[in-house]
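hiii, so i know i said id send this last week but things got crazy w the move. better late than never?? heres the sequnce for the chain we talked about at the cafe, plus the structure i predicted for it. fair warning i was half asleep when i ran it
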Amino acid sequence: MSSTQHQLIEQCATRLRGIVEALDNIHDNTPHRWSTDLDDVHSSAESLLALIKDQAPARSEASFEEWLANELEGEDGQPVPAAVCDIALARRAFNHWPKLEHPAKVCGVRFSAGVSSRLVVEAAQRLNEFESTPEQEAERPEVVAYRTIGRHTKHQHPHYALNYYKQNAEDQAAHWRERGCEVSEDELMTVAQHERIVGALRAERDGAIKLLGQSVWQKIERLTQERDAALARVEQQERTIAGINEAHAKLAGLYEAAQAQHSAGYAEARQCVNCRHIGINDAADYAACHDCRWTGPEPDEDKCPGCAGENCMAAACPECGGRYELVAEAKISTPAAQAGQMPQAWLDVQAERRRQITAEGWTPEHDDEHSHGQIARAAACYALAGSSAPNDGTAALLVSLAWPWDQQWWKPTSARRDLIKAGALILAEIERLDRAAPGKEVGHE
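okay and structure toks below
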């Protein structure tokens, strides 16, 4: 190494030591002045780098160790002060040299062995970014700066540093850590990138809210429709019930009028399926079809002229001609006709006879098996029970002597009920006698 180069190295070392001392002084004593003095420090560093760039020897093809040994050895064989060369940066710079074979790829700037190792590293990093694939470029964060924060127990306020290159931020963090600071590092992005990310998230959120809102609105709309339909059905049923009640009231009036006039009649209440009109005995002169809603003069046969359906014709509404459905009807008899009806007692006897046949199995075939007067004796026992007082010992004795079957079949209840059973058994015995003597009429033998 020439003496000129040695002098340049000494000058660089002196200036670098001054820069380091200035930085230490700012860091330790006046941290609030860091941003103010930062420009002067950068100017001094740029001057130092310019001197090295102009006077540093060309890069050797030797190994890194040989190249570094030559760089750190003076003319007299004494080691160059360590402040002149950052060994870690030198190693990174040496490893990046193969990528700097084509200077055009690095913004057209040529580099030589004398260029600051830090610039070499940063240039190689830019080259890596330049050579990245579209996929890698899409995934790469758009970091525009690096913020480093150092906190020390001796100082009340933390130290802040903003660097545009990652290597500078790493060096700053390493320097503060060596001085016992707790360091945090942040990658900063542009406001536009933040807005783009936030905008995408907002769009996704708005889309989800929109979908959710549509879903909720659709459910509310469906529930509203179901509610309205249910209310409409309830209203229709209320109108129908009111019409039926009105029809019953009209029927009652007709019944009373018929009784007063001593005449027989028939009343019916109908309701239209179209206009919901309700009337009493007011059907139109024409008919309506149940299936196709055809209306017209009533055909001779129960066959619709419109759809040719059978057994589908009905009365027509006098208001609109629609199908007139029957909702209530009543037969009104005169007092004379009512007087000629069967008495309730005889109807009860017939009902008891039917019960004996269906519930107890006393069918005509079963009765024919008891042809020795058992049924008549049983009828006499029930008649005797129905005609005696509860404590009549004579009646009880007669019953015990006359009852034709096992005692478990003797089931007296009340006087009227026992007489009804007696009447039903008498009816069964008369029918048995009629079957046993065909051609003979009872009472005319």
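btw Strands lie at 143-151, 159-163, 182-189, 265-272, 278-280, 286-289, 295-297, 313-315, 324-332. thought thatd interest u
miss u guys!!
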